[in-house]
Amino acid sequence: MRFILHTYGCQMNVRDSEAAAALLEAAGHTPVQREDDADLVIVNSCSVRAKAEDKALGKLGLLCASRRDRPERMVGLMGCMAQRLGPEIFKHVPGLDFAVGTRCAGAIPRLVARVLAGETGLLEVSDLDETPDVIKARTDTGFSVFVTILLGCDRRCAYCIVPDVRGSEYSRPAREIVAEIRALVRNGVREVTLLGQSVMNYGRANSVWEASDAPSPGGFTEPFARLLEAVATIPGLLRLRFTSGHPSGVTDQLVRACATLPAICHHLHLPVQSGSDSILARMRRGYSRADYLDAVRRLRTAMPDFALTTDVIVGFPGETSDDFEATRSLMNEADFDNAFIFKYSPRPGTPAAAWEDDVSEAEKMRRNQILLKDQDVRGVATNSRLVGTVQEVLVEGPSLRNAARWSGRSPGNKIVIFDPRPGLDPGTLARVRITRAAPQTLYGEALSC
């Protein structure tokens, strides 16, 4: 069958979709780029916010309706929404052929075969204690890849459904991760992003280093810092990133690893969610405003060029105008390079879902727009400081908006648009002098090597 996957949500879902595609190809199916060409369409879903589920449900409804004209088309669902809803998903989406939860993407080829044999309405969800055996499945990798190092999450923030749909934390053995990345680099990969729902928790829930493993050359003893060192020193790897972070993970060893290992990019996505201590406590985030700002200070003291992006929730139950202004002031003090701002939506089964959703939709939207405008102003100011500098850009290829120009990313994860030069291929490094700045984009000219 010809297939396509539509992915909603985080980088973990992107990686899961890559694994599912690899398994389908291994089973003899063929990927296509256009939905119209596909006989099998799979939606990989996200449950973090109601809007993400609504998008997936809307897409699935359209796909199932399209079978009036294409009765042979197969429609499947994978990911967090399938895990959360279980058998109920078939009531929400009549005509859905199969659904697969988290940590069991390996079932997809088998379920596809069963649907081809005449079955339908098939479901497979995980008990969330299993380690998926498909975590390393890949197709053509390109030059930049995600590598999952930690599954699940143990934090239990009051608003978050992730522990229920992704399970408890499990860290992959360090030796296995390093071997996987060595093989990827041998095959042409130049940039790796280490993934985990709370990636800096790596090694806290289970043992990851063996007694026979060589000691850290840099004297790192914390599991995550030691892994960063082991990966960052792999010959041929140009860049190493990791996401998503938590302030508790910004230890002295983490800061030292980022500051001293050249391959580690000076950028971290560090969700703050709120700048109010009372809201942070209700959210069960596990840190105070002062804790968060201290993590920011220590990163930027060691690395003045360190770029920080974040997530913020507005309209959390009980959030007053003063709480909102505390968030606004923290964002200014932290001087974020970019921020992703979301209106709170209750997630069924979480502690916060039982609380009154007492901030109106209109007020949530107002607060959302204020923070977005603030971030645009901050983004222009932050990026303008880079005008005239030369940035080392990992070339990605033609820009999505203007194929005559190319794009890439700086070490600080900023999109850089520039005119191409001969010899600059995707996956190579270009020196680009920045000539203009926008809130989320830099523009420049590539220099001769």
Topology:
Layout lengths: L1 E6 L3 H16 L3 E2 L8 E6 L4 H16 L8 E6 H6 L3 H4 L5 E3 L7 H9 L5 E3 L19 E5 L1 E2 L10 H5 L3 E2 L2 H13 L4 E5 L27 H10 L6 E5 L8 H9 L6 E3 L7 H7 L5 H14 L4 E8 L6 H14 L3 E6 L17 H24 L5 E9 L7 E4 L5 E5 L9 E9 L3 E6 L3
Parallel strand pairs: 1-2, 1-3, 3-4, 4-5, 5-6, 7-10, 10-11, 12-13, 13-14, 17-19
Antiparallel strand pairs: 8-9, 15-16, 15-18, 16-17, 18-19
Helix pairs in contact: 12-13
Describe this protein with a few key phrases.
five-stranded mixed beta barrel, six-stranded parallel beta sheet, Transcription Regulator spoIIAA, 21% strand, 13 helices, 19 strands, alpha/beta, Rossmann fold, 449 residues, OB fold (Dihydrolipoamide Acetyltransferase, E2P)
Can you walk through the features of this model?
By secondary structure, the protein is of the alpha/beta class. Among the domains are: 2-124, Rossmann fold; 141-265, Transcription Regulator spoIIAA; 390-446, OB fold (Dihydrolipoamide Acetyltransferase, E2P) (Beta Barrel), CATH 2.40.50. 33% of the residues lie in helices and 21% in strands. It has 13 helices and 19 strands. It has helices spanning 11-26, 50-65, 80-85, 89-92, 108-116, 162-166, 174-186, 223-232, 252-260, 277-283, 289-302, 321-334, 361-384; strands at residues 2-7, 30-31, 40-45, 74-79, 98-100, 122-124, 144-148, 150-151, 170-171, 191-195, 239-243, 267-269, 307-314, 338-343, 390-398, 406-409, 415-419, 429-437, 441-446. The strands form 5 sheets. A 6-stranded parallel β-sheet has the order 2-1-3-4-5-6, with helices on both faces. Strands 15-16-17-19-18 form a 5-stranded mixed beta barrel. Strands 7-10-11 form a 3-stranded parallel β-sheet, sandwiched between helices. Helix 1 links the parallel strand 1 (2-7) and strand 2 (30-31). Helix 12 packs parallel to helix 13 (361-384). It is globular, with a radius of gyration of 22 Å. The termini are far apart.
